[in-house]
Amino acid sequence: MLVLIEQSLNGLQFGLLLFLLAAGLTLVFGIRILSISRTARST
Amino acid sequence: MMGAYFAATFVAWTGSFVLGILLALGATLLLGILLEFVALRHLYGRDHLDQVLATFGLILFFNDAVRLIWGPAGLALPLPAWLTVPVQIIPGVFYPAYRLSIIVVALAVAALLYIVVMRTRIGMLIRAGASNREMIGALGINIKLLFTLVFGLGAALAGLAGLMQAPILTVQIGMGENILILAFVIIVIGGIGSIRGAFMAAIFVGMIDTLGRAFLPDLLRMVLSSAAASTAAPALSSMLIYLLMAIVLVVRPEGLFPAAKR
Fold first, then answer.
1. A24 and B158: CB-CB below 8 Å?
2. Cα–Cα dist B125/A11, whole Å
3. pLDDT tens per residue, range B27-75
């Protein structure tokens, strides 16, 4: 149980860290400064 | 990676953890703006393959620039004493204060980002630029400056993630690359351009990854023989995220929380 709580917090912390990185990227892609989704949209 | 290196350097220079981190954040913001200005600005009209090539080239460039400036050995970013004590979150459960502070800082940044994008004028411009860039250019908004700022913001966010990760891992060349793939997975799962989607997907992916690594070996041991479980579990737990992404792509190709339709 203790390990579960600890690992969940670790997971949350890792997830939030990933969010910081992903949020910047998603803003950049969302505003289409750079594009990874152009081909997907045209199909 | 750059955020972590800046942080390690500035913390060593100033002797203060908080001041060093603030300086490093500013430095990554400036670096992002500079990069956009020097390199990426000229690629907006080009094919996305050119952009991928250019950004990949930048990764290689920065890896070797770091090797040149800081040397090939990793750095350490020491924590101040007040962040190393364990905190008792509920009776009997201790948790490192630093990891707790990462959670708090990241949640605060997420809230701030949400408020900026949804409630302020600059956020309105960002959303408008995302839905129709020609139109807001025609309305007299300096769209190039806006894009530069957003790119800088993105770089600063990545820098923040890197420098907060730094005391847990070592500061080394290529430290961001494993996590970059995960970030792409998160963007795809959450829906491209959706901050809310990125938030949900990031927590989801972080949980699955960590819990999978922690508990899958024991879970498998219940069904399989011990030897088979110990070979299968690490392979399976590193596959989990990508399995999740594949399922999401099949069920909802636009991601879980797609940004508003264009």
1. yes
2. 34
3. 999 998 998 888 888 887 777 788 888 888 888 999 899 989 888 887 8
Q: pLDDT tens, A15-27?
A: 888 888 888 888 8
Label residue B140 left, alpha or beta by phi (over 0 means left) and psi (-120 to 50 means alpha). left
Q: Are A6 and B95 spatial neighbours (Cβ–Cβ below 8 Å)?
A: yes
ipTM field: 0.80
Q: Hey, how many other C-beta atoms are within 10 angstroms of the C-beta on B46?
A: 12
How many domains does chain B divide into? 2
Residues 6 or more apart whose CB falls under 8 angstroms from that of B227 comprise none
Q: In whole angstroms, give the CA distance from residue B209 to residue B114.
A: 25
Min distance A17 CA to chain B CA atoms (Å): 5
Whether the Cβ atoms of residue B74 and residue B169 lie closer than 8 Å to each other: no
By residue range, what is the domain housing residue B106? 1-173
> Final residue of a domain: which of B173, B195, B213?
B173
Is the pTM here over 0.80, yes or no? Answer: yes
> Shortest CA distance to B8 belongs to which of B170, B152, B175?
B170
Q: How far apart are CA B204 and CA B206, in angstroms?
A: 6
Residue A30 contacts by C-beta under 8 Å, 6 or more apart in sequence? B130, B192, B193, B194, B259
Residues of B in contact with A32 (CB under 8 A): 130, 133
DSSP B91: T
